[in-house]
Fold this sequence. Notes:
The protein is an alpha+beta fold. The chain has a domain at 78-203. It is built from five helices and eight strands, in the order ααααββββαββββ. α2 packs antiparallel against α3.
Amino acid sequence: MPRVRAVVAQAxxxxxxALVPAPGRQDQSRRCRHKCLRxxxxxxxxxxxxxxxxxxxxxxxxxxxxxxxxELLWVWHxxxxxxxxxxxxxxxxxxQASADNVLSYMRSHIPGTIDMDQFRxxxxxxxxxxxxxxxxxxxxxxxxxxxxECSTLCIPxxxxxxxxNYTFRRFLSFLGLPGVSLPDFxxxxxxxxxxxxxxQGTCLP
Length: 205
């Protein structure tokens, strides 16, 4: 019975009033929250400005340099392979003084580079030179023959295919910068019968 009375008395006991901070403390807490929010906004704005400066001053130039280098190496490899293919064609086809057969083949097989228009009708030039080896000195001399073109009697010893006056400017043109003049590309190969059949007396043009 005493326990029941104690429980009832506890239930009927009035609740204690909630602690309410003093007005001064409320203002101080509010000012602290405003100050913290303002500091966070200032820090966020400073971070954005710093990131923008780093992106413009460091990351973007590095990305452009990587793109420029990758495109330049790709074009360089393509032009080197282009001269090799032209030299292989010249070594297995008959001699013509004007080298029109080799030039026509190369202009119809220009690699799909970003500056392929320079090889088709631009400043880049394709040169084909034939040489014969001097029997006495062993040196190479410019080849000449008066027995007619595509003849079994006119077979040079060496052919050189060269690409000159090529300027890499595709990527730089977007930035308004002058192009980069590349050195001449050259491939020299020995003649492989020039596509001529001595028994039949015919040559592959």
